[in-house]
Amino acid sequence: MTDLHDNRDDFSAAEALVRAAAGYVRPSENLRPRVLEMARAERDERRALRRVWHLAIVVMLLGMFSSIANTWPAAAPARGLGNPFEVVSPFEQPDAAAQQGEFGWGMVDSFRELNLPTVV
């Protein structure tokens, strides 16, 4: 078994060396400005990284909203006030039933008016 007294002597010698070195260690004249400059640089880097993340989140949200907006049905423009280059189908039904997919007899009448050759 080791004697605890011997271990204390080892620590006391080391503590004596540390205490003796306390008088020799002195900070340099530019230590404080260097530390402040490093702290500012790290703060600026963190701030820039935070801005990049915020920008990425905004771009992601705009992408999500634009994809959702593209799937919404567009409001029907008023006739005569819309785009003059708009392509309008000759089979377009202006009534609400046709817009919901219920074609009724109007579609049959429009095919009869086309005078297509009948296949026998």
Summarize the helices and strands and which ones pair or pack.
Elements: H1 4-21, H2 31-71, H3 96-99, H4 104-113
Task: Write up this protein.
The chain is mainly α and 120 residues long. The protein has a domain at 28-72. Helix content is 61%, strand content 0%. It is built from four helices and no strands. The longest helix is centred in the middle third of the chain and has 41 residues, at 31-71. The radius of gyration is 42 Å and the shape is rod-shaped. The N and C termini lie far apart (115 Å).
- Structural class based on helices, strands and sheet pairing: mainly alpha
Please describe the biggest sheet, giving its number of strands, its sense, and whether it closes into a barrel: none
Averaging pLDDT over every residue, what do you get?
A: 75
State the assembly state of the protein chains: single chain
Can you tell me the overall shape? rod-shaped
Number of strands: 0
List the secondary-structure elements in sequence, H or E: HHHH
Level of helix content? 55-70%
Question: Uncertain segments of ≥5 residues (pLDDT<50)?
Answer: 75-79
Give the count of helical stretches: 4
CA radius of gyration: 42 Å
Distance between the termini: 115 Å
